[in-house]
Amino acid sequence: MIPNRQKLYVKVAVAIAVGAFLAAVVACLYFFWDARETKLREVKNQLGQIALTVQKTASVALYVKDVELGKEIVEGLEVNDLVAGALLTADSGDWVSSRGFVADDVLQVLEFDIPHPFFAGEVLGKLRLLPNNEYIQSRATEVALKQAWMLVLQSALIALLVSLLVHKTLTAPLNRLTSNFENIKPGDNNPLSVPKYHAQDEIGSLVRGINQLVANLNQSIEKERSLRQRTELLERKFRLIFERASAGICLIDPGNHVLVANEAFQRLCGTESIDNQPALSHWFEEEAELARFFDELRGNANLNHVEMELQLRSQQSDQLKWVHCLFSKVEDSTQTLIEVMMYDITERTYRERMIRFEAEHDPLTQLKNRRSGERLLVDMMRKADQTRTLMGVLLIDLDKFKPVNDIYGHEAGDSVLKTVAERLVKLAGKGITIRWGGDEFLIGIPDVDEDYNKLRQLAQEILVQISRPVAIRGSLSCEVGASVGIAIYPHHGHTLEALLEAADVAMYEVKEQGRGSFRIGRISSGAA
Amino acid sequence: MKILIISLIAWLLVFFPARADDALYVVVNAKNGIENLSHHEVVDIFMGRDRAFPDGNKVTVFDNSSDTETRALFYRQLVNRSLAQVSSYWARLQFSARVTQPREVDQRQALLELMNSTPSGITFVKSTELDPALKVVYKFDP
């Protein structure tokens, strides 16, 4: 509630009272002064009339210098309340005066000419009247005071009436309106009623305006409420998506620290809490690259989404996890955040690698199979082209392998092949070792020297190593040999086919000449 | 208006020539030293203000009331007052010790005798009543 002294009708009443009081004071002062002045003027006028009354007799008295008559006149004048004293003067000077006449008050004395009784225009003397100032003043004050009091009473009455009127027609309806207004609850649809007799005036339109406003307010509150419900529902769904998502989702700040993360993220990273953790880049194996990438993503306006596969260091185990990450830039109002979505692809990655390995390798010797080997050889040739170096291929065909297979069985043959493969891998170093066929191997060697000396040494070493006995079962062992044909790229051919052809030819020449040796292919006339 | 007044005066002159000549005279005892009085002096003497002649000798006023018409004319000419007004004037001074109303004399003969026997006497008469014993000191214009 509003305190009493702030209420409108109290204010209005006080204002009217103060206004009326001030007006009454000013009016009273003015009217008091005016009434006094009027009264004084009136008294002066009356004194003039009194003087006129005695003028004729005074004129006769002065004419015949009848002191008795003169005395009678001035004393008669003094009887009047308004007159304090009177004096008759003749040409020769003061003649007769009443007792009350005191000559020292010259300023207040009123003077009237006494004419000649018979000759108009001739002046015999003067009648001087001393007004009874005390009496006149008191009379004037009395009259003025009476008027002033009347005025005060009138002002008070008018103020009271105006206050009542204002209260009745304006403040009381407003007051009722205010208390009704305070009872309005937002959302409730019970409008205020227009006060009686006020339908056409300002109060009526105020009430209608308030009702309109309340109705509008209710409408917008209703709208707001349904909107909020929809938003809440939506938010719940989104939160569910975020929290229950199988993908780990997090948001990182410009310092790469995790701001917010869902359960899946924490599960993936094996963390209990995202607080007090190092920057996100430190969580990955590719730490330095990732930190650089984050800077680039923030700096590059054209870069918005980037996908990559990374290795995540789990905080619970030493094992790395392969994760597929999707980085998206999120422009906040003040800073650039990055949203990270991560899927655990560890299992898939391992499976893929396994499949790829199986596809590219010989299951028995674990060497590259012929198909993937050809591709690797072609790559090596391209590399040799780029570095202007030589590259050599050694085609190795085992001798006396078929009898081993026939005598000791396939298992013995397999173990021979395995052992040979192991020995060849050791010798090949940074070259690649390929199982080319059933008992055929091929080694690609990069950076071959100009005079092939090292290559020859390698071929010799291969022959030595292969011919060493191979243990097959228990103490049982067997021996195989090898024939090696060598071709050099690009000396023996520009294509892999030509190169292999040259090596094959060289190898057959060795076989024809008695096996257990190596031979470098001849440079054909068509070759460079 | 002027023309009317002038024609009225002319009419009066034609039909009342004797009246027109009937001027009033203020007279004193022939032995009185005063030769002339002004209109003002005559007023002061007759209305009771002065009780002596300008030369200081006592004055005794006789009010000639033998002929009311003459008396009325006299006061009209003297102070432009009616007889009633004059009586009222004296009534005001009735209780005054200093001023007394002039003595009224209603017999012509008696007036003449009084004037003769009183050296300080003064009165007024018509031209027909002038006498060698009386000295004219002021003459009203007819």
Descriptive notes:
The complex is a heterodimer of chains A (528) and B (142). Chain A has helices at 8-64, 67-79, 133-182, 202-244, 263-269, 287-299, 346-360, 370-387, 401-408, 410-428, 453-467, 496-512; strands at 83-90, 93-97, 110-115, 123-131, 248-252, 258-261, 305-313, 320-331, 336-344, 390-399, 432-435, 440-448, 470-473, 476-478, 481-489, 518-520. Chain A is an alpha+beta fold and 528 residues long. In chain A, strands 6-5-9-8-7 form a 5-stranded antiparallel beta sheet, sandwiched between helices. Chain A has a 5-stranded mixed beta sheet with strand order 11-12-10-15-16, with helices on both faces. Chain A has a 4-stranded antiparallel beta sheet with strand order 2-1-4-3, with helices on one face. In chain A, helix 9 (401-408) runs antiparallel to helix 10 (410-428). With 142 residues, chain B is an alpha/beta fold. Chain B has a 5-stranded mixed beta sheet with strand order 3-2-4-1-5, sandwiched between helices. The radius of gyration of chain B is 16 Å and the shape is globular. Chains A and B meet through helix 1 and helix 2 of A and loops of B.
